[in-house]
Amino acid sequence: MTSTQNNTENKKRVPYHFGEKLRTVRERKGLTLKVVAQQAGVSESLVSQIERNKVSPAIDTLLSLADVLDINLEYLFEEYHRERPVTIIRADTRRKIAEDDITYEELAKPVDSDGDHAVESYLLEIPVGSHTHKGSYGHTGREIGYILQGKAQLHYENLVYNLTEGDSISFSSGAPHTLINNGPIPLKALWIVTPPQRFIR
Questions:
Q1: Banded pLDDT at 132 (limits 50, 70, 90)
Q2: pLDDT confidence tier of residue 3, bands split at 50, 70 and 90
Q3: 37 three-state secondary structure
Q4: How far is CA 8 from CA 2, 13, 51, 78, 86, in A?
Q5: Which of 83, 116, 133, 149 has fewest C-beta within 10 Å?
Q6: Please, are residues 152 and 177 in contact by the beta-carbon 8 Å criterion?
Q7: In contact, 25 and 71? CB cutoff 8 Å
Q8: Of residues 126 and 97, which shows the higher confidence score?
Q9: What is the pLDDT of residues 67-125, one digit of tens each?
Q10: 191 beta partners
Q11: 70 with 23: CB under 8 angstroms?
Q12: Are 69 and 36 in contact (CB under 8 A)?
């Protein structure tokens, strides 16, 4: 077999190394093999073998372990995503979350393998007179916003910034901040957050 054929076959094999990740999360949570096995409905020896990558878990077993350990499946399959450098979210498959009467529509999912460069992005829609709540106490990172439609005020610490359609803004997320729709129509904005706060899980 030629080296080219070897390389081709290696690219087809996706290295699902679940074991290290499952063990790391379990240990961080202070859970024993026995406790995790009991809650997942499998044997302790099976969990041990999976953690040591001796056994490839069935999908239902993997889902049970992920549920017990509260692990995001995106995190488990990040090696698979590395094989796909471009991620597309189709318009009819975007995930949404409602915060009272405000809608966050996911445009870009955070990827754990991106480390410090990970971002999340949303199409934000705020009804007239309403405002965001998530940044009210501040959080680590930075945000960038672009007003697609309407008027807004960004309250940042004790300062107020007026924004209109076409304006963009960026700021450190560490200080309390609130985006208010003070215009006569629904406010629509493109919003980027880094590092991800994972509003949608």
A1: very high
A2: very low
A3: helix
A4: 10, 9, 28, 20, 20
A5: 116
A6: no
A7: yes
A8: 126
A9: 999 888 777 776 665 555 678 888 888 888 888 899 999 998 887 667 777 899 999 99
A10: 122, 145
A11: no
A12: yes
How many CB atoms are located within 10 Å of the residue 2 CB?
Answer: 7
Please state, as a whole number, how many other Cβ atoms lie within 10 Å of the Cβ of residue 121.
Answer: 20
Residue 40 has pLDDT above 50, yes or no: yes
Give the bridge partners for 122, in sequence order. 106, 191
Place of tokens 């709540």: 133
Going from the C-alpha of 117 to that of each of 85, 110, 141, the distances in angstroms are 14, 9, 11
* Whether 154 contacts 161, CB under 8 Å: yes
* pLDDT (0 to 100) of residue 199: 66
Structure tokens at 130: 């309403």
pLDDT tens for 43-61 read 999 999 888 888 888 888 8
The bridge status of strand 102-108 relative to strand 96-99 is antiparallel
